[in-house]
Design a protein that fits this description.
elongated; 3 helices; mainly alpha; about 120 residues
Length: about 120
């Protein structure tokens, strides 16, 4: 992808709602991915919203990738797919808590001393 083949955004792209400290400090993106999002994110969002029409072959391919993410082949396309997955799909998390509900059970604890044993 050359710089002339995909238009820069009209302004730097930020997402303060999902990444309030910025893309690079989120821990989700590499520094180069964060830079690509900042420079081209405004344009990619405009393509996705249908506000902007593609002019180059790379921009037309990006439009196709929006419908078929598995066809992504440039860093720009991959970073946009990554961004949309992180912001639009529910986050998966794992816990160490058990799903069984045993809170109703009560246990009696009896203290045992060696002196209480009968010989």
């Amino acid at each position: 992808m050359s710089e002339e083949s995909f238009r820069f955004g009209q302004k730097r792209f930020f997402d303060d709602k999902n990444f309030p400290r910025g893309f690079s400090k989120s821990g989700e993106f590499t520094l180069s991915e964060a830079e690509l999002l900042s420079l081209y994110g405004d344009t990619m969002l405009a393509f996705e919203a249908g506000i902007l029409d593609p002019e180059t072959a790379e921009e037309k391919h990006f439009i196709k990738v929006l419908k078929h993410p598995n066809k992504a082949n440039t860093k720009l396309e991959h970073v946009w797919i990554k961004y949309t997955k992180l912001t639009r799909e529910p986050k998966k998390f794992h816990t160490l808590n058990s799903t069984s509900n045993k809170r109703g059970e009560q246990f009696d604890f009896v203290e045992h001393h060696p002196e209480d044993e009968v010989a």
